[in-house]
Amino acid sequence: AQSVTQLDSQVPVFEEAPVELRCNYSSSVSVYLFWYVQYPNQGLQLLLKYLSGSTLVKGINGFEAEFNKSQTSFHLRKPSVHISDTAEYFCAVSDRFGGSEKLVFGKGTKLTVNP
Amino acid sequence: EAGVTQSPTHLIKTRGQQATLRCSPISGHTSVYWYQQALGLGLQFLLWYDEGEERNRGNFPPRFSGRQFPNYSSELNVNALELEDSALYLCASSPNRGQPQHFGDGTRLSIL
Predict the structure, then answer these.
(1) What is the sign, positive or negative, of the torsion defined by CA atoms of B36, B40, B41, B43?
(2) pLDDT tens, A5-26?
(3) What per-residue confidence (pLDDT) applies to B64?
(4) Engineering a disulfide at B46: which of A74, A79, B34, B55 sits with its beta carbon 3.0 to 4.6 angstroms away?
(5) pLDDT, tens digit, 9 for 90 and up, residues B52-107
(6) CB-CB neighbours of B80 under 10 Å
(7) HSE toward the beta carbon, residue B109, CA cutoff 13 A
(8) Residue B58 burial by CB count (10 A; 0-12/13-18/19+): exposed, middle or buried?
(9) Which of A45, A100, A108 sits opposite B56 (nearest CB)?
């Protein structure tokens, strides 16, 4: 079985500051990794994905994440945040070869960007 | 390109009633997934349909069911509604296995 732990439930930062949202996963098999963002009263929007290849993944809105297999982590980073980045962020994994296709999500991290 | 569309946006029911939620995937996507986002429980996988067949099911009772139509749209049915079924139900689609899932804006189901 897979599980995802998002280490911070809430992260407050000031505008233009860097931010890192932490994600660790547990799995006995190879996985795909994803970060999604959810704005109030909306669904989930895919920020970025790691399927294979380079461990540094760049996504939309200036976000990037690094896959670290030895530490089973997939932390999300942005060098300078904007007010509009205020949202909830979810890390997710899926089984690479098992064919179950379901996404297992972390509990989410609420990012609040203050002026 | 139109995204995943879900209807209705909001649905209010009472205990014991039945609810039907609908989802249209992105054009060309054959897989449809359903997730429940309940307060305090996070996002939980419900069902996966691919090519008209149910391929996988999460840890939910049988009163949660669904189907996928020949045009790949899908509906989720919840029978004998209980108060704890109140949640945002999200539908996602992907073009095939192993590809990222794209989500709709959800149907908020409220049970009174």
Answers:
(1) positive
(2) 999 999 999 999 999 999 999 9
(3) 98
(4) B34
(5) 999 999 999 999 999 999 999 999 999 999 999 999 999 999 987 778 899 999 99
(6) 11
(7) 30
(8) middle
(9) A100
